[in-house]
Specification:
The protein is of the alpha+beta class. The protein is 45% helix and 19% strand. The protein contains nine helices and nine strands. Helix 6 crosses helix 8. The chain is globular, with a radius of gyration of 19 Å. The relative contact order is 0.11.
Length: 266
Amino acid sequence: MMKAGNDGPQRQETGTLGKLMVLLDLIAQADGPLRFTEILAASGQPRGTLHRQLGHLVEEGLLEFDGEGRYRVGLRLLDLASRSWARNEFRAIAEPHLSALQQLTGETVHLGVLRGSSVIYLDKVEGRQSVRMYSQIGNASPVYCTGVGKVALSVLPEERLNAVVAELTFERFTPSTHTRDTLLSEIEDIRADGYGYDREEHEVGIRCVAAPLWSDDLSFVGGVSVTGPAYRLTLERLAEWSLPVREAATAIMTDMRIALGPRRFR
């Protein structure tokens, strides 16, 4: 078995499961969605075999096949990954900071990671006055109308940001949901400020303030947020909590780099 190189998985596996894992690794580690011809060239597998394997992975929800003939990681795989993340060292490292932020604000605190054009929630600490909202651990939410999603996008380099935005379908969930132009404008503001808001963009009556999380090589990008009902989370209150949210994000990243090390903070 050959070891993976810097350009992605190059190993040759035997058996059906091993070959499927090679494909999942290849597509998951790519900078963006891959066309069949790109996967064929990188995998070295016969065309017919590769076509069948990709079809099986799409059927199982582990990969998605978009309208432009490209393959990307599927939501089922992301769901499985998020369940694993929820039990790993990262969650344990972040948990004290999430709990402290919840104690300070009294509102619900979220921890999420960017996966494709969605945010996957890895942890959630409920507020003292719980309000019913869409989010739950393992759920995928649109990146363009959530606080965690927008702050995650803000740390991406322009080329990668534009690639993600190009893949988005801007469904209008509320009157405040972003369009492409308004999203890119707000991302510039987030970059300048170091935090961002969700002003009832995904759910009417729900607001949040969020700050970004990232690894040095940007293989991990996400965010932490404080979320609650709009009647309590006024814009003035959100601005007041922007500093503790940023401080929590900085503390989480510092602890992750110390505990996990640069090679494992991914």
